[in-house]
Give the backbone structure.
Amino acid sequence: MASLVLLDALRRTARKLEEGAPYMWGHMGACNCGNLAQELTRLTQADIHAFAMARSGDWREQVEEYCPVSGLPIDLLIADLLQYGLTTSDLQHLEWLSDPKIKQRIPKERRDMMRHNCREDVVLYLRTWAEKLEEELLDSVALENLSKDTAPKTPSLAH
């Protein structure tokens, strides 16, 4: 389940990218996942990039190789990100802007032209993902309250 912290981090990341934060898809600390990781962990892009260089591959490949007990800094970073409600699939999809559940919410004319390494498309994806998570969180709260309201009442024995 996604957290409010993750929801806020997605929005902050989108806003910072829109306002000109460093972005370079080929840099592990300044790419799609790298920018979100900066928001969630408060690590610098240089730190994140250095952690990732201990093993080869982009974020998709790093996540495929993820081992929670390896002790590698990149695996510790991924473990930290997972604690905010992200999944390994979320990270892989973010790097390539490829989650079908997020993309289906983007107008078709824009969706068909999205590029994984385009700042504006990353901003759109992050905002769309945040909207989706917000709806899911609101639905879960509404269902939780509904189930409390419809629970059978215990009869009172007091007169």
